[in-house]
Structures are given as C-alpha cells and as structure tokens.
Amino acid sequence: MTQESATQAEDMPIPPYGLRWGVKTSFVGYVARMPDGQAYLGEGAAVNERNELIFPLSEETPAEADAEQAFAFGGDVRFSGHFGMLFVRIAEPRIAVRGGEAELTVVDPESEEDKRLRLVTFTLTGPETEDGTERWEGADVRLTAEGVELFGDVYQAGEPFEPLTVTVPVREGR
Ligand code: HEM
Questions:
Q1: Whether the Cβ atoms of residue 96 and residue 67 lie closer than 8 Å to each other
Q2: 26 lines ligand 1 (CB under 6 A)
Q3: Which atom of ligand 1 is nearest to the CA of 85?
C-alpha cells in the first residue's frame, strides 16, 4: 500500500463522533500487500493505528424514519489495486435497526442515482452512556447477498466482517 493512509493516520484528527469499523482485516491486509494497493480517504474519513476506518457522524438526520435506531455518517473510502481492476468504495455509511436486526448501507457504487447498497447485517447493542457520549457495539457482522459483488464475488453471503462501534453525543428525548 502507498503511504497515503499511513501518513494520514499520523496527521489526521480522528473525529470524536462517528462509526469505527475495520471492514474486514484480511481484505485490508490483502490490499496493503499489493504493490499498487491504495486506500483513499476522503470527506472526513480517517484511519486509526489499528487500521480501522472512522466515518464522521453526519449532520444529516437519517431518513430511515421507520427504524428503531438510525445513524448517518459521512466519509468516502476507496480501496484500489491490481492496476485499477480492484476498486471497492465504502462511502457515507448509514445504520438502521429494524425488528432488532441492524444493517449498514453505503452509497451504491453502481448507481448513478442516490441508491444505496445494503452491505452487512449485525446485532447492535447499547448504548453505553459515559460523559455525554453514547456508545453502540455492532457484533456478528455478516456480508449480505447484495454486498457479495462489491468484493469481487470472493466472499459468500454470511462471510464474517469486523465488529463496529458507533459513538454519538447523548441524544435528547430518545
Ligand atoms: C488482477 C486481478 C486479480 C488478481 C490477480 C487477484 C489475486 C488474488 C489473490 C492471489 C488472492 C489471495 C491472496 C491473498 O490473500 O493475498 C486474492 C484475494 C482476494 N481478492 Fe483478488 N485478485 C484480482 C482481482 C480482484 C478484484 C477485482 C477484486 C474485487 C474487489 C478482488 C477481491 C479479492 C478479495 C476480497 C480477496 C480475499 C482477501 C482476503 O480476505 O483474504 N480481487 N486475490
């Protein structure tokens, strides 16, 4: 991998609120091992020392009005390699919980419009509240059938992905 992400990791402020997600450690390692592998971080996305991505909490109110919980994040992360043949974009993630099951959607890289791709499902527990901050933990994170193509059909639906953490200011009236 080029130094782009590593350099940014040292210089870049980590947003206080947002989504922290390692995506899939073996995938990030795979891109890192490629001579031309790159992770571009834009729109306020950051990476920490454990190679986890941080997507900043969005000012936008999530549109998922039917959801029991909903969170929206900014940030645009693009993995590339194999001379452009590999390109995986994870941008503006949103989380919605319905019927106890949580899902994470991202901007659909195939869509010209504002369509979203349901990438992983998981169980979300929380919040743990401390010093005005709510922390939610996502566990048993699994790739959806719709997300298989994004990773070049290498992983099957149900493939385990990394756990994730959501940190937001305590929300009044919820
Ligand atoms: C020039 C074309 C490609 C070649 C030669 C290639 C080669 C390989 C090889 C050798 C591995 C296993 C080695 C390792 O784990 O380090 C691998 C794994 C993988 N490749 Fe590719 N690949 C290509 C294109 C793609 C594309 C277009 C995608 C789309 C996203 C992709 C996604 C993956 C994924 C997700 C894994 C599994 C990583 C893991 O979790 O271990 N590859 N590829």
A1: yes
A2: yes
A3: 27
Encode the chain (174 residues) as per-residue pLDDT tens digits.
543 544 445 567 788 899 999 999 999 999 999 999 999 999 999 999 999 999 999 988 777 778 999 999 999 999 999 999 999 999 999 999 999 999 999 999 888 778 999 999 999 999 999 999 999 999 999 999 999 999 999 999 999 999 999 999 998 755
Instruction: Return the amino acid letter for 120.
Output: V
Smallest CA-to-CA distance from 159 within 27, 64, 5 is with: 27
The finding on whether 152 has its CB within 6 A of some atom of ligand 1 is: yes
Spatial distance between the Cα atoms of 85 and 63, rounded to a whole number of angstroms: 33
Between CA 61 and CA 106 the distance in angstroms is 16
- What's this model's pTM, rounded to 2 decimal places? 0.91
Is the Cβ atom of 27 under 6 angstroms away from ligand 1?
Answer: yes
